[in-house]
Every structure is written in C-alpha cells, then in structure tokens.
Amino acid sequence: MTTLKIRIKEVARKKKGWSLYRLAKELSLPQQTVYSWANGRTQPSYENMDKLCDALDCTVGELFEAEPVQRKLDLAVNK
Questions:
Q1: Whole-angstrom distance, CA of residue 4 vs CA of residue 45
Q2: Which 8-state DSSP code applies to residue 28?
Q3: DSSP assignment, residue 17?
Q4: SS3 readout for 22-33
C-alpha cells in the first residue's frame, strides 16, 4: 500500500530557498492555509495547486512523494 504526502516545505526550500511564510506571501494566501497544506491537515484546491506549481516552478508530481506504508512502519519501529 502507498500513501501520498505533500512536500511543499521541502520543494519550496529546494527550488526557491523560500520558507512557508514567504510562499504564502508569494501566493497571496493566508499563512495558515499554506501551513495546513504542509502539515497535511488540508489539501490545496486545483486552482491553488496550479498557483503553487507556478510559484515553485515545479510539477504536481514533484510536490507529492509516494512512500510505501511498510517503509514508514519500519522507520517508526527502528527508532
């Protein structure tokens, strides 16, 4: 089984050197909205996903990372 997790924070840092605060400003969105996406509490709408990809010069695929559930469990157990 595979889960998808959004990697906004990592992509923003890697591609632009931006914090989530700066990304929110660039998107003209409330900071809380971007933090909610990054923490997995909410997902961006299709419109905001387009804005996000444009601002970060990335694809939707780059924003999501597929990670097998078993790998996550293995990492948690081995801590």
A1: 16
A2: T
A3: -
A4: HHHHHHCCCHHH
Place of tokens 């909610």: 36
Write out pLDDT tens, residues 19-63. 999 999 999 999 999 999 988 889 899 999 999 999 999 988 888
Cα distance between residue 45 and residue 15, in whole Å = 21
Max alpha carbon distance in the chain (Å)?
41
End-to-end Cα spacing for the chain: 22
Contacts of 27 by beta carbon, 8 Å cutoff, 6+ apart: 34, 48, 51, 52, 55
Instruction: Show Cβ contacts of residue 56 under 8 Å, excluding neighbours closer than 6 positions.
Output: 11, 12, 15, 16, 23, 63
3-state secondary structure 37-71: HHCCCCCCCHHHHHHHHHHHCCCHHHHEEEEEHHH
